[in-house]
Amino acid sequence: MTAEELLQSVAQEVVSCQRCPLYRNTAHGVPGEGSPHAEVMFIGEGPGYHEDRQGRPFVGPAGSFLNDLLASVGLDRQTVFITNVVKHRPPENRDPLAEEIAACSDYLTRQIEAINPKVIVTLGRFSMARFFPTARIGQIHGQAKLVDGRLVVCMYHPAAALHRAELKQTVIDDFQRAIPAALAESKRLAASGKLGAEPKNDDDAPPPQQLSLF
Description:
The protein has 214 residues and is an alpha/beta fold. It has one domain: Uracil-DNA Glycosylase, subunit E, CATH 3.40.470.10. It contains eight helices and seven strands. A seven-stranded mixed β-sheet has the order 1-3-2-4-6-5-7, with helices on both faces. A hairpin with a 2-residue loop joins strand 5 and strand 6. The longest helix is centred in the C-terminal third of the chain and has 27 residues.
């Protein structure tokens, strides 16, 4: 199957998903959208009110801010892929629960495999935890690390910057500094054969490697 077909298959499953109770009292599942050949994949936390109404990720105020951030580094929604760790809106926009994230985990895994991005950008602590379960976002935001043959950059969620004015410039600075640097580093790693190398198994997998990009 092509990347497009794989992503469409996931999207169709998300639309009718009942793996956890989140689907109740929601209007739409939100599988994600963007290029199936994106070099950069953004992973947020979960759909909000506007996303649930439209069935699209990041279309509310945080989405408008994300659009501005993308434009600031020469990207747009058509050239990246945007999704979340959970595909239905948690009630009242509460934090997603561990069992809800686990229920959606396979969808996200298949999306990552289909797209095979050079760089993954996590937006918020719940998507960060998929790759760095013991980390604190205040300690690693804006840093790139090599995880299972992919560069992962952790960022504060755009909504956090809208709710906490002191974070907004941090998010802007992280975005404009880290993403171009990570893309450049991904090309260097790919040329040296170090990008896309999967560990043999979980026991053999090395810990995330901090890269001296910045």
